[in-house]
Each structure stands twice: as structure tokens, then as C-alpha cells.
Inverse folding.
């Protein structure tokens, strides 16, 4: 383990692949499991900053309990913030208001500041529109001034980004770069999944639905608890591919699918970095596909070197090899991990396509896609997704993908399926 | 001479990788990698060597190069400076490149002036080989990524042309001459009071200095022992080495002697990587 030499958190990477390619074969797939046993072993604890961004647009009054639940949830999140972490609360409408502290900076958490913040949160009133780009820009300014190693925000909205154009939001995301990570939550069913997914993807965060206002407290608590476990800032996945090869894609595939291909930062002609944000005690899987120049039968070459880089230091490295063979028994064998995550990616895709077809009234296509989804969910043991699917289709025979579209689908079920379609299961241990 | 002697057979890019694959095209290269170096032995008859990770360190940062075209031989031993970045890569590339440079110098001599010694300057060949090694170590990738702690290693070479032995060194890896009537250390350490604190090394941050070279003609039969400090930490004086070697059976092979010395270091604690090469010089054979 290369990582064992560093005084940093311990990162471990394991590669799963079938190293054999048929003669003329070019596409080498590998799954890399990266585990960080973080926390305690980190030599220099990273400094952190947290901002809670709460939607206070007029619709937060409908139903009446919603704004109250948002207050409680924000207060619960504040209670989770560790002493010393810089924090603040933004109230978002057509504009971004620094709810706490009023002067628009961030303050170190302690009992006094947490109480003062909760007092300010109790005064939250709903009214006005929704301009998420403004909220993000304000958060970005505060994070920049605070200059912590790890900057993380929670963003809550209940509606679509009505009061600015998509180009405003795109510009705001551009401005933020990856200066902070943002977990996004939509409460109720009046927000748009694609909008929040774009924000979460750009800012290396998660996206999820909170079906009812009452569930906000537990969701916010869990999110903030999780944020507090992050101890290693700015971790990058570094992929070297040989001269003449192309990186077909780099995806995070667990805990959820996130295509990182286009977030590549060039290190040199053959090497790209993919930012993965901050890490705590956790494990994530990546699927890398490199298109290499084919070699002669019997030749062995490297298709990729995949490393993890923390503070510009390589903390773990694994090799993806390729061996060309005329033995079909070897080259057609599909690696179990690669097959599993290829299936999980297809599952997410057919769900999203199926829901889109359903929306556009193409019932035949929707039935076909969602049927395939049921089949994939059963095969891979993704019970959570199967359960969500059952809210949108009646599953007659999952094994053959036979389903019927439900006519009485609740919005919340459809949105939950859409939002959570990218959540994957891991392979069961034991092989 | 300042070129890579070692290039990828597939794409001709210089190879410095520790993982046995070319940095350019990814082709597998016949370069000894990490896992080959826990314990490796090379036996080429009159010259042989052993490199061993030792009992404490997690990897072997020593490197060994041996070549023999009887009656000539080349030995290079390099020891990565453990406080530098990727010292194993520095040692490997330095040993490979200097070794190959010395082999081609010997070969050119043979072609230009067979059986004569006109125009043959082993001191110059040794200096050129060390220069090539220095240039290669500077180009190990980690040298760019860690300019504050660039890869570094020691260096010692023994060039036997059948008549004279030429030894060049930088740092505290050593060469000894052991014969029944004459046992002595050929090198003097580039270190403060033989304290392991180096005053010279190869690497991007190496102090500018001409490496030291010495040459002599053995009068008797005997052995040249070239080693890293993993051996001499335990067998320091030439007399101790002589005792160990002279106790051996007559005509014991070079590899058997190298194994024996390595074993001595491991039995004594094996605290560092151990590399030992033995060149047997038989003055009764040949001319």
C-alpha cells in the first residue's frame, strides 16, 4: 500500500477487472473501490465551514406547517455543528439574506453562536420568489472569505427556480467552481429533479427528495452529521492512460452514480484528475473505461494507473492491466463487479428514460423501460429501487420485466423514483 | 552518454517506472519492479550479486547491476536515500543506466582497439557513466513533483577490464579489495565522519562535485566486494570481510560468497536493505 507511508488518512484502493481482451479489443473496464479509514488517523485535522441555505419563498407557507418544519430542521442541523466549525445560515428568496450572522460572514460554532443562530432561525418568515443562483453566489462569497479546507452547504428548496433564468443558475455554478460542496434537498413535489440534480452534480453533493415537511428534521440532522465526519479535503481521482488511449468515461458508481468524465482537470498529456470532494470514513466505487490501442495476442500492457491524490500527494495507486488473448474463454469472461455496476448504470438510465417517456405520453416505451428497470433491480438485489418502482408500475413478473403502468401515480412516488434512480447497491460479499 | 540507456521496447520513451510498465505507452517492460526486489540474485560466474530487502524495511531501495563478458565485468550498486522521494526509482535507474554505459564503453574499447589498451580510459568511462546516472536520476518523475525532496541515491561502480580495476563512487556505498595478503577498503565514504550523513549523492539537489575514481592492478588473486551500507553496517572493516571470505572453501563461487555475506548481514539484524556483489579475480588465469 503506497498510502501506508503517509501521515494522512489511510486510503486503500482495490481494482476489479478482467484483464483479458480479445485480439483487436480496445475497451478496458475496471471498478476501483476506494476506502478511507479517515478520522482518527488524519494528522492535520482539516478546518471546516458549513452554511445552511433555507428556501423562504412564499410557497414555504403552503402547507402552513412547512416553514415551521424548515425552522426546526435548520435548528437541528445547527445543533450538529461541531465546536470551531465556521458556520452561517442563508435565507433564500429572490435574493440571499444572511440570516445568521447578520454581517454576512461565518462565525466559529460554540454554544453561544449556535443559540444565537437558532434564535435568528426562529424568526424565519416566508415570502418572495426563488433565485437559487443568488443563494449559491452568496454562499460562495462567504466560503471564500472563511477560507476553510472543507466547505459544505445544505440547500433546501420547495419549488422551481422561477425568479431567474437557467443561464443565471449556470453562471452562478460556474462562479462557484468546486469551491464548496452542496447537498440539495427538495421538499414536497413542486421542485424540479433535473434542476437540483444539476446543482448537486456541479457541486459534488447529493440530491434527494423530502416527501413531507415533517421528515425535514431527521434528514437535516443526518446530512449535517455526515458532513461533520468529513476529515480529508479535496481528494482527487487521478487517471493515467497511455499514449494513444482515450478515457471513455470515469464514473462514481457507489453510493450513487455520478458521471465525472467531463469534470476532468488536465495534469499532463496522459494524466487527468477528477475531483471527488471531501472524505470521511467511507468507501466509494468508481467505474473507469479506457479505450486503448490494441496489441498483439500474448502482449501485456497497462491500460491505466488510477491513484488517489490528497494535497497533491499520491496516497494510493492501482494498476489496470490489459492482456490480449486468442482464448475466448478468457476474454469473454465479464468481471463480476464491472457487470454489476454496468447493470446499475443501465438501471438508472432506463428509469429516467422510462419516466420521461411516461411524461410525454409514450406508454409503450415507458412500459418497456420500466419493465427492464424492474428486471435489473431484481437481478442486482436493489430492493430500494424496486420498491420505488412499485409505486409507479405494477410489477407482474420482475424476472421477465413484465410490468403495467399505474394510472394513479402520486407525484411524490414518481419524483422519489426519479431522484433516487442513481442510488446503487453494492455487490454482496462472498463470491 | 547523457542519454537514457534504457528505453521502452515498444515506444522508445525513457523508462523510469517502478511498476514495470512504460510511462508513455503502458507496454510491459522487462524492468525489475518492486515485487522482484524483495530478494534477487544474479549469478554470472566470476561476478555475482544479491540484493535483499532486509528484515525491517518495507521495500528494497537498493539496486544492483551486474554484467560480465569474460574476462571483463561491471558491477554497480546504488542505495536510495531514504529521506528522498521515490529513492528506489532513483537507485534503479542510476544502476541500470550507469551499468549499461560501462558495458558499452567496454564493448567500444573491444571494437576500436582489440587486445590493446590504446585510447582506453576507464576513469573517463566511469565518470561518464556516473554523469549519465546523475542525469537519469534528475529525470525520475518524482523529481519534478517534489523539488524539495527529489529522488536521490548513492553510487559505486567497479569496472574490471581484465587488467585493471576502476572504482568510482558517490556517497557511502563501498568497494573492498580482499586477497590473502592485502585486505582494504577501496572507497572512502562521502559522509560526515562515516556517520551515514551523506556529503555527496546523485539527484537533482546533489552538491556539485566531481565523483571520485580510483584504479589499481591486482597483484594477487582475490575478490572485489561492492556493497551498500546494509552489509558494512555489520561487517565494517576489510579485515572482518577477509576473515569471512578466506574462511570459505577454495574456489567457492562468487554467488556463494555474495549469499554468505548477505546472510551475515541478515543474521546480524538486517536493519537496512542489503546488496552485495562479489567479483572473483583469478590472476593465474588468462594473460
Amino acid at each position: 500500500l503506497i498510502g501506508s507511508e503517509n501521515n494522512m488518512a489511510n486510503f486503500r484502493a482495490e481494482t476489479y477487472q478482467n484483464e483479458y481482451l480479445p485480439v483487436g479489443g480496445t475497451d478496458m473496464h475496471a471498478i476501483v473501490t476506494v476506502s478511507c479509514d479517515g478520522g482518527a488517523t488524519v494528522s492535520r485535522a482539516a478546518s471546516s465551514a458549513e452554511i445552511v441555505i433555507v428556501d423562504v419563498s412564499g410557497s414555504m407557507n403552503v402547507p402552513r406547517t412547512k416553514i415551521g418544519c424548515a425552522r426546526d430542521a435548520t435548528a437541528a442541523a445547527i445543533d450538529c455543528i461541531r465546536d470551531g466549525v465556521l458556520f452561517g445560515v442563508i435565507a433564500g428568496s429572490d435574493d440571499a439574506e444572511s440570516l445568521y450572522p447578520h454581517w454576512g460572514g461565518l462565525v466559529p460554532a460554540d454554544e453561544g453562536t449556535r443559540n444565537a443562530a437558532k434564535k435568528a432561525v426562529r424568526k424565519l418568515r416566508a415570502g418572495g420568489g426563488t433565485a437559487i443562483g443568488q443563494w449559491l453566489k452568496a454562499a460562495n462569497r462567504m466560503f471564500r472569505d472563511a477560507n476553510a479546507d472543507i466547505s459544505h452547504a445544505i440547500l433546501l428548496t420547495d419549488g422551481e427556480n422561477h425568479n431567474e433564468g437557467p443561464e443565471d443558475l449556470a453562471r452562478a455554478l460556474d462562479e462557484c467552481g468546486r469551491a464548496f460542496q452542496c447537498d440539495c434537498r427538495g421538499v414536497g413535489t413542486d421542485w424540479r429533479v433535473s434542476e437540483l440534480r444539476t446543482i448537486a452534480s456541479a457541486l459534488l453533493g447529493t440530491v434527494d427528495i423530502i416527501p413531507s415537511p415533517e421528515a425535514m428534521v431527521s434528514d437535516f440532522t443526518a446530512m449535517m452529521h455526515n458532513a461533520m465526519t468529513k476529515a480529508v479535503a479535496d481528494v482527487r481521482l487521478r487517471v493515467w492512460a497511455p499514449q494513444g488511449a482515450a478515457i471513455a468515461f470515469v464514473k462514481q458508481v457507489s453510493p450513487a452514480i455520478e458521471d465525472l468524465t467531463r469534470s476532468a482537470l488536465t495534469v499532463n498529456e496522459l494524466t487527468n484528475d477528477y475531483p471527488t470532494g471531501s472524505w470521511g470514513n467511507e468507501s466509494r466505487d468508481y467505474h473507469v473505461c479506457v479505450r486503448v490501442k490494441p496489441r498483439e495476442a500474448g502482449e501485456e500492457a497497462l491500460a491505466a494507473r488510477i491513484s488517489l491524490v490528497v494535497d497533491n500527494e499520491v496516497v494510493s495507486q492501482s494498476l489496470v492491466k490489459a492482456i490480449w488473448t486468442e482464448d475466448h474463454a478468457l476474454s469473454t469472461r465479464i468481471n463480476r463487479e464491472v457487470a454489476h455496476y454496468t447493470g446499475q448504470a443501465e438501471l438508472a438510465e432506463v428509469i429516467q428514460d422510462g419516466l420521461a417517456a411516461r411524461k410525454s405520453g409514450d406508454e409503450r416505451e415507458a412500459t418497456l423501460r420500466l419493465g427492464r428497470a424492474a428486471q435489473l433491480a431484481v437481478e442486482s438485489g436493489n430492493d430500494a429501487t424496486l420498491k420505488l418502482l412499485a409505486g409507479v408500475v405494477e410489477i407482474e413478473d420482475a424476472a421477465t420485466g413484465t410490468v403495467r403502468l399505474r394510472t394513479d401515480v402520486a407525484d411524490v412516488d414518481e419524483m422519489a423514483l426519479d431522484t433516487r434512480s442513481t442510488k446503487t447497491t453494492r455487490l454482496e460479499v462472498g463470491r | 552518454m547523457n542519454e537514457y540507456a534504457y528505453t521502452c521496447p515498444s515506444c522508445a520513451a525513457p523508462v523510469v517506472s517502478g511498476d514495470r510498465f512504460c510511462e508513455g505507452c503502458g507496454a510491459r517492460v522487462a524492468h525489475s519492479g518492486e515485487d522482484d526486489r524483495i530478494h534477487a540474485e544474479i549469478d554470472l560466474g566470476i561476478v555475482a550479486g544479491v540484493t535483499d530487502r532486509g528484515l525491517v524495511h518495507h521495500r528494497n531501495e537498493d539496486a544492483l547491476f551486474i554484467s560480465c563478458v569474460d574476462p571483463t565485468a561491471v558491477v554497480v550498486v546504488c542505495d536510495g536515500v531514504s529521506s528522498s522521494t521515490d529513492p528506489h526509482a532513483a537507485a534503479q535507474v542510476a544502476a541500470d543506466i550507469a551499468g549499461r554505459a560501462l558495458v558499452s564503453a567496454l564493448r567500444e574499447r573491444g571494437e576500436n582497439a582489440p587486445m590493446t589498451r590504446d585510447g582506453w580510459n576507464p576513469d573517463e568511462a566511469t565518470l561518464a557513466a556516473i554523469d549519465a546516472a546523475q542525469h537519469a536520476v534528475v529525470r525520475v518523475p518524482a523529481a519534478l513533483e517534489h523539488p524539495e525532496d527529489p529522488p536521490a541515491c548513492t553510487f559505486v561502480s567497479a569496472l574490471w577490464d581484465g587488467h585493471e580495476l576502476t572504482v568510482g563512487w558517490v556517497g557511502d556505498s563501498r568497494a573492498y579489495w580482499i586477497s590473502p595478503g592485502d585486505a582494504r577498503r577501496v572507497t572512502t565514504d562521502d559522509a560526515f565522519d562515516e556517520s551515514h550523513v551523506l556529503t555527496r549523492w546523485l539527484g537533482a539537489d546533489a552538491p556539485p562535485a566531481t565523483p571520485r575514481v580510483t584504479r589499481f592492478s591486482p597483484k594477487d588473486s582475490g575478490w572485489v566486494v561492492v556493497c551498500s551500507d546494509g552489509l558494512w553496517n555489520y561487517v565494517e572493516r576489510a579485515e572482518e570481510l577477509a576473515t569471512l571470505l578466506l574462511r570459505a572453501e577454495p574456489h567457492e563461487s562468487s554467488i556463494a560468497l555474495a549469499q554468505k555475506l548477505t546472510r551475515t548481514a541478515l543474521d546480524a539484524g538486517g536493519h537496512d536493505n542489503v546488496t552485495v556483489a562479489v567479483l572473483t579475480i583469478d590472476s593465474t588465469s588468462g594473460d
Residues 336-359 of chain A form the longest helix (24 residues). Chain A has eleven helices and 20 strands. The CA atoms of residues 231 and 359 of chain A lie 42 Å apart. Chain A touches chain B at residues 4, 241-245, 270, 292, 295, 299-303, 305, 312, 317, 319, 321-322 (CB under 8 Å).
